[in-house]
Design a protein that fits this description.
extended, about 450 residues, 3 domains, seven-stranded antiparallel β-sheet, single chain, Jelly Rolls, alpha+beta
């Protein structure tokens, strides 16, 4: 379209040049021929030196008529070209406007901290952009991950005859029971919405067969006396980046004018490990959030205000991280593996953390208790998550990172298995916080 417009503009320029050339001979004051029609126009005609100008003009009336016709044609051509150019400009404006709208819709507008603003409701069992086949494939991938873990558990049990392995098997069976209900519910809803989809029906059969096989293998593994592990000796595992796999803390947080939050994290997810935890309150989904999304650094959000944290943890190893904050001047500090890595101020100053909210592990909330986005989900392992309503000292944080006997537990929230519910295929496994330090 740009090439054609350029050609038309060149033609217009030529037409205008010819018109100006001809008019330079037409409208010159001092000659005397009237073409009629109520308007007197003057032309300049070459005549002999001694000849009367008006007589010469009358003698050449026919060429003057031809010239007038030519001028009118050129004038009409100029008007047509001008109209064409105006139409082309309007078309360009329309296409530019449409292109701008398309570009704006293709990439959602980022919110504070580089996070995407949601424009609609989300499916709590899968990414809304996925079709039925994609959703079932993702669920099958989840089952495959559980199957691999079970195989590892079998090998461990055969090699060690461990009572602890039996405890892990019980947990796994419980989680598979929950997952089976969700998978079958999802498949049924797909088939109800689109009856007669043969591929989905066949895949449902394969999923059910896999679940049955897993149940049977777990039953075969159950031998010996079971032993309950201590309530705080566990980790949460989020093996896949989904928008339905998460853990929920059973109680809310109190109003806090200062806090320290610490945890152990292990992840090699890329890009970004996701959201280890998010706390939302009515009217503010980002009351307190720890997130590393996309290629952005890890961030702490308080009342939607953002501070970038100097953490580097996506190397597949366990790391102990802590963040402290006080409402006075919004002063914050960030610790990795017991060492302060950064600090700052003016992070939501004089804004207390509000009570009566929902604390979620593994997902970022866009609405109170929901609105999860798979691209912001945490992928990896999380353990020993504690919250205090005060700023811990450097020594106290070092004791936590080095597993000192002087280490304390959170007075606002402490890491207990009975305090957390898990959903969507997330799992609990036995974990000794400092085992990797030995």
């Amino acid at each position: 379209m740009q090439h054609n417009t350029h050609g038309e503009m060149q033609a217009t320029k030529k037409a205008i040049s010819w018109t100006l050339f001809i008019l330079s001979y037409l409208f010159v004051e001092g000659s005397c021929q009237d073409f009629g029609g109520g308007q007197t126009q003057f032309i300049c005609t070459s005549v002999p030196k001694d000849m009367d100008i008006c007589a010469a003009t009358l003698q050449n009336s026919m060429p003057g008529e031809d010239l007038k016709t030519t001028v009118m044609q050129l004038r009409e051509t100029v008007l047509q070209q001008k109209e064409t150019i105006m139409n082309q400009k309007e078309t360009i404006r329309e296409l530019t406007s449409k292109l701008t709208r398309c570009e704006g819709q293709s990439a959602p507008e980022p919110g504070p901290g580089g996070r995407r603003k949601e424009t609609g409701t989300k499916n709590t069992m899968g990414d809304v952009s996925r079709g039925p086949s994609d959703t079932l494939a993702q669920l099958s991938q989840t089952l495959q991950s559980l199957k691999q873990r079970l195989e590892n558990l079998e090998q461990f049990s055969r090699n060690n005859n461990s009572v602890q392995a039996n405890s892990l098997k019980d947990l796994l069976q419980s989680k598979i029971d929950d997952l089976e209900k969700q998978v079958l519910s999802r498949v049924n809803s797909i088939e109800d919405g689109k009856p007669g989809l043969r591929n989905e029906t066949e895949q449902r059969g394969r999923v059910e067969s896999t679940l049955t096989s897993l149940h049977q293998r777990i039953t075969d593994l159950e031998k010996g006396q079971k032993e309950n592990r201590p309530l705080d000796k566990f980790q949460l595992t989020f093996p896949l980046r989904t928008n339905y796999m998460y853990a929920k803390v059973k109680k809310s947080l109190p109003e806090m004018y200062a806090f320290t939050v610490c945890m152990w994290l292990k992840s090699n997810a890329s890009p970004g490990v996701g959201t280890p935890f998010s706390y939302a309150v009515p009217g503010q989904a980002n009351e307190l959030v720890l997130i590393e999304w996309g290629n952005n650094p890890m961030e702490i959000l308080i009342n939607d205000k953002v501070a970038k944290l100097p953490f580097i943890i996506n190397d597949g190893k366990w790391h102990h991280i802590c963040v402290t904050w006080t409402t006075r001047d919004g002063v914050w500090e960030a610790f990795q593996d017991g060492v302060m890595r950064g600090s700052g101020e003016n992070l939501a100053p004089y804004h207390p953390i509000k009570p009566q909210g929902v604390l979620i592990l593994g997902q970022e909330q866009d609405t109170l208790g929901g609105g999860f986005d798979a691209t912001q989900a945490f992928v990896g392992d999380l353990a020993n998550f504690h919250i205090w309503d005060r700023k811990l000292s450097i020594g106290e944080i070092y004791n936590l990172a080095t597993c000192s006997s002087k280490a304390q537990i959170g007075n606002v929230f402490s890491w207990l298995e009975s305090s957390i519910d898990i959903y969507g295929g997330a799992s609990k496994w036995t974990f000794e916080a400092c085992r990797q330090l030995n």
